[in-house]
Amino acid sequence: MKTRVTELLGIEYPIIQGGMAWVAEHQLAAAVSNAGGLGLIGAASAPADVVREEIRKCKALTDKPFGVNIMLLNPNADDVARIVVEEGVKVVTTGAGNPGKYMEMWKAAGVKVIPVVASVAMAKMMERAGADAVVAEGMESGGHIGVTTTFSLVPQVVDAVSIPVIAAGGIADGRGVAAAFMLGAEAVQMGTRFVAAKESIVHSNYKEKIIKAKDIDSTITGTTTGHPVRCLRNKMTKEYLRLEKEGADFMELEQLTLGSLRKAVIEGDVVNGTLMAGQIAGLVKSEDSCEDIIQELVRDASKILKL
Ligand code: TUI
């Protein structure tokens, strides 16, 4: 399964682990990289110094390439953008915004830049700005999402840009990988399956919720605030959606989700916490090691694609 993406990143398999807030810590990133994929540290809303420590801990666990995902709504994004250069990180992915203002600095430092996009227009803008590849992320994904599905978005982005396209959203097994390749993607990024991985530090209550989830168990909060987020339905989402329907203002809604992802990931509060997960959670049936996940994906996708 060699593609322009495996070559660009110097990895064995075209499989990237999403840079998920609170979840994509150094343990998970190192495990995915050691298994031949690309692991990512999710900088999320962490202070820059914490991200630096995570990078150093990841380096201690792997000599393979790994990356950092920078969430652009983070008020510390400027500092994190500098720290990845200082620490010699090889790959940066970005989410929830336009990383244009950092591009020159990253390119000058030889960092491979892979923005996550949810539209064709954004993909074209990122190619013009010098991106090395893009992740085209469909609205099946967990967390902050756009409006287009993976099946529609990926081939349209593939036709619109010349740089390699990585498919994300709704992929959790070898069939999904093969389907993404049929649409023209040259790698996949997966989140939900890795949330439930053995090396993921996520609380067992949260992992269990993903493993028990059915196809229709996710919902989207925040459509009224401009920050739509897909997560598993629970008491928190029920309350959030009720408030949204009643026309609650941004601050009131913020209050409900303040620290709620941490609550789910660290404390295992699956009632009041935010359980970010994609629609494909229904396909995730067990807690597997990153090595087993990647070997399974490559074996099954190769068979389908007759590689
Ligand atoms: O970023 C993600 N997924 C995320 S970020 C996150 S943290 C968060 N929590 C609550 C509210 C908001 C964020 C949880 N999950 N995926 C990549 C992604 N990027 N999806 C959609 C986009 C995106 C959206 C708009 C990329 C660019 C964009 O452009 C807007 C602009 O500036 O033109």
Feature tags:
307 residues, alpha/beta, eight-stranded parallel β-sheet, three-stranded antiparallel β-sheet, 14 helices, 11 strands, globular, binds ligand TUI
Give your account of this protein's structure.
The chain has 307 residues and is of the alpha/beta class. 43% of the residues lie in helices and 15% in strands. The protein has 14 helices and eleven strands. The protein has helices spanning 4-9, 26-34, 48-61, 77-86, 103-108, 120-129, 150-160, 174-182, 192-195, 204-212, 235-245, 250-257, 260-267, 290-305, and strands spanning 15-17, 39-42, 66-71, 91-95, 112-117, 134-137, 143-144, 165-168, 187-190, 218-221, 229-232. The termini are close together. Ligand TUI binds next to strand 5 and strand 7.
| Extended strand count | 11
Order of strands across the main sheet: 1-9-8-6-5-4-3-2
Order of helices and strands: HEHEHEHEHEHEEHEHEHHEEHHHH
Radius of gyration: 18 Å
Summarize the main sheet.
8 strands, parallel
User: In DSSP terms, counting alpha (H) and pi (I) runs of 4 or more, how many helices?
Assistant: 14
Shape: globular
Low-confidence stretches: none
Helical residues, percent:
40-55%
Which percent range describes the beta-strand content?
5-15%
The assigned structural class equals alpha/beta
Integer average pLDDT:
97
- Cofactors, ions and other ligands in the entry: ligand TUI
Cα separation of the termini: 7 Å
